[in-house]
Specification:
about 300 residues, alpha/beta, Arc Repressor Mutant, subunit A, D-Maltodextrin-Binding Protein, domain 2, 3 domains, 7-stranded mixed beta sheet, two-stranded antiparallel ribbon, 12 helices, 11 strands
């Protein structure tokens, strides 16, 4: 097993791109840091860096190792900081981006206790391409992304799988019982209004393909670029839609929405925590990321 201190030193070199700068970060001499690197490379049996005139160039093995260990080491660092009296590192701002529905439904309430300890939460809503660009530019520190956007300098960590459900309000659910859909498939929905958050029906299209094995032939009767508005429209009887379980769980429990789709196969979509590759997250950013990982298990 690799020494934890060696892994911390490696991550410092990986992020700094320089032995000199990394030595300052981990408070070791350059010879000691170089010795740790040689020991880690010998343990792994792989070369992690190539020395260049302007610093260190990471090898593919280094990229893979950094992606595997960074979230965990950062989380350990945040927990250690959090244990200090007064937790002064929590005070300050964190810029977090993601889907408006998820941030509003799950994340804000989860982070509310940190506000009393000085956290200033700055939320940005949007689609992954714009949010990832803002992250790479330094305008955001952490992004919850519904898809991976290829962007140099950005790391992704899968942390949650949202489950999609085909749902209807009471009136439509009475006309479209689950047995009907299981027997007739997508044909049972012919002529039924669809409610979506975009013209191309992204979630509905994915559900049709996974469950019914067909393409969506209809267009949406209602389009609202916010899944919360979609949910309320469906509940009011405007039609049927596909929504993430985390969002509509309360409506399902109260009977305001009814799941009408077949129970198998489950249709899911991976969510990712995105951070900048070259920047060591501030302890409060690492703490928020770790809280998200833990909370997601109950979503």
């Amino acid at each position: 097993m690799a020494d934890l201190g060696h892994l911390r030193s490696f991550l410092a070199m990986y992020r700094a791109g320089s032995v000199t700068q990394a030595a300052k970060l981990v408070h070791l001499t350059q010879p000691a840091l170089s010795a740790q690197l040689r020991s880690l490379e010998a343990h792994l049996g792989r070369r992690l860096f190539t020395r260049r005139a302007r610093g260190l160039e990471a090898t593919p093995a280094a990229h893979g190792l950094a992606a595997a260990i960074a979230p965990h080491l950062d989380a350990l660092g945040a927990i250690a900081e959090d244990a200090r009296a007064g937790s002064p590192h929590i005070a300050g701002a964190i810029a977090l981006g993601g889907p408006a529905e998820l941030l509003g439904k799950r994340v804000v309430g989860m982070l509310a206790p940190l506000v009393e300890r000085g956290l200033q939460l700055r939320l940005s809503f949007g689609l992954p391409p714009a949010l990832i660009e803002a992250l790479a530019a330094g305008d955001l520190e952490l992004v919850i992304a519904t898809t991976r956007v290829a962007r140099r300098g950005v790391d992704y960590e899968r942390f949650y799988a949202e489950e999609f459900l085909l749902v209807a309000g009471r009136a439509w659910a009475a006309q479209l019982p689950r047995k009907l859909l299981e027997a007739r498939g997508a044909r049972a929905l012919d002529g039924v209004p669809l409610v979506a958050y975009a013209d191309d029906l992204p979630i509905i299209r994915r559900y049709y393909r996974a469950v019914f094995g067909v393409r969506v032939a209809a267009t949406a009767s209602v389009i609202a670029p916010d899944l919360r508005a979609v949910m309320h429209a469906v509940s009011a009887g405007a039609g049927v839609s596909v929504l993430p379980r985390y969002l509509c769980a309360d409506f399902l429990a109260r009977g305001e929405l009814i799941e009408i789709g077949p129970v198998a196969p489950a249709v899911t979509n991976a969510l990712y925590l995105a951070t900048r590759t070259t920047a060591r997250p501030h302890p409060r950013v690492a703490l928020v990321a770790e809280m998200l990982r833990r909370a997601a298990a109950g979503w």
